[in-house]
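Figure S4 source data
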Amino acid sequence: MTICSTQLSLIVLLTLVLYILIRWLAYYPLRNATEENIVHEAKQNSYFMETIRGIQSVKLFDKHYQRHGTWMSLFVNTVNTKLTTDKLSALFEFSNKLLFSMENVIIIYLGASAILDGSFTVGVLMAFLAYKGQFESRTASLVDQYIQIKMLGLHAERLADITLNETETEIIKYNHIPKLDNEQLVLKVENVSFRYADNEPYLFENINLEFKDNEAVVLTGQSGRGKSTLLNILTGSLKPETGTVSINGHDIYQVSPSFIRGLSGIVRQDDVLFAGSIGENISFFDESPNMELIEQCAKMAQIHDDILKMPMGYETLIGDMGNILSGGQKQRVILARALYKRPKILFLDEASSHLDVENEQKINHNLKSLGIMKIMVAHRQETIQSADKILNLG
């Protein structure tokens, strides 16, 4: 390109320098506007999904107009920030076209003048314009790709809290799974303390507990005293600040998480069901489900008769989070799912909170006949009275 004309080449280079400068100056306002738009859009979508999930409460409290008004405000904020982003993009595009159009006018004017003076030929000018087009398009594309990569950082930053966290396999370095054969299980809690943050008080401190095979133990106490947290520690979901939790002498935090998970069945307060049939949910989508065991577990959980009354029995499809089932039915299906594992330890966190007294008594009797270790969090007297041991956490 410089072989054809040094003067015109300098104009092209100056134009590209100005393009890069404009692109860079536009980057920060555009980035800030895009970030604001992403935040507002996330708030709007989150509010919308929250309203859909709690639509029954919204209707019963006659708050649909209020929720709709708030959502409309969030939607308007999202649209406004999107308009700001679009305006900045349009302004940059206008500046871009104006800059290169002026450059073309100047180059053609100077080239035409040189042709009239006899120092340039039409062929040389056409060759220069061809080289210029290639050079500018490649350089502008390179600059644009660089800016786009930097803009992607916005989305990466929003995902950083998730993607940069250590995975379970990175945190837990142990793969060993001890074999217990047919040993009697003893679960020991020794000098365990836990708090959620360094500046918060301990939920419990230096507690020592022992759970034995074929024993039903209830953890009770006032709300907020750490009963569910202790259950999460016993299942390996949380790690205590100090102390150990061991099964037959094997520290559950010094072996593979599959050790405690393979031994236990768990029913939590916030457990959910998945889209699929009731039978699939009880077997937790086992590749080779044992129908006889599914029915046996359903009977133990006092849900078998309810399932048979449904149109397709165990093949009845339930939606996301089991939304065609009542609270009590859902809780019993989740209990049947825990029993399907044939656990040696059963952890129950308020597993009968939605059950009537009759069904609760039958389930407690059925669970007692299993002859396994049961550790329960409960407030209801029927469950507490069914236990062999009661541990009050205050």
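Figure S5 source data
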Amino acid sequence: IKEGRAGYGIFALRSCLQVIQTGAYNEKKGVREIEECEVAKMAMIRALEKGWPSIVIHSNSKRLIGMFNQNSSMDSLVKTPLEDMFAFKDLFASCPCQVLTNDMNISCNSL
């Protein structure tokens, strides 16, 4: 997930960092973690529409990553968006969330 002037970007990469799909999310709700949840949820929906059995979600928010991977939505601020993500997560064979690495940030910034 990339934040910029236009909002957030969504990109699908193969393991070799080859970009296979991009998208954008422009709605701003003011709370970064809620926005990241909404963007991740949108990416999950797109992956399901494409029939992809497994995906990896990358985020800059270590807190969000921890809550997602532990299926824990104890933070009331992001409880509803995270619970939506948990429901979509169960539809994939594998759907971990990981920290966005520098090499992926470079690929994203070049889009």
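The chain has one domain: 2-109. The longest strand covers residues 7-13.
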